[in-house]
Amino acid sequence: MPTVLFINGWRFFFYSNEGNEPIHIHAKKGAQECKYWLDVEEFSAIEAFSSNMNSSDKRLVKEIIYTNFRLIENEWNKFQERKR
After folding, report:
1. What is the C-alpha to C-alpha distance for residues 31 and 6, in angstroms, rounded to an integer?
2. What is the pTM of this model?
3. Please, is 45 exposed, middle or buried when counting C-beta atoms within 10 Å of its C-beta (0-12, 13-18, 19+)?
4. Buried-exposed string 63-80: b where 16+ CB fall within 10 A, e elsewhere
5. Rounded to the nearest 10 degrees, what angle do helices 55-67 and 69-83 cross at?
6. CA distance 34 to 53
7. Cα dist. 31→11, 22, 57, 60 in Å?
8. Which one, 3, 22, 60, 78, has the greatest CB density within 10 A?
9. pLDDT in tens, 42-77
């Protein structure tokens, strides 16, 4: 589970055993956890799931994702290359 970012207590990471799912990022802080699909062409992040998060937490996570969108995309691509 490579960590891509660690910001404001949130760890952003990929799971290595998720098969061939499209680009996405997981975030976890204590008991709070979520997953967002990234649409590179539309520059959007869509919530796949969240647990123990309020709307403020979700806004913060999305803000971090958008601020680091290209970094996440590049790390995803490198991670997928290494898996091959």
Report:
1. 16
2. 0.92
3. buried
4. ebbeebbeebeebbeeee
5. 70
6. 8
7. 12, 25, 12, 16
8. 60
9. 999 999 999 999 999 999 999 999 999 999 999 999
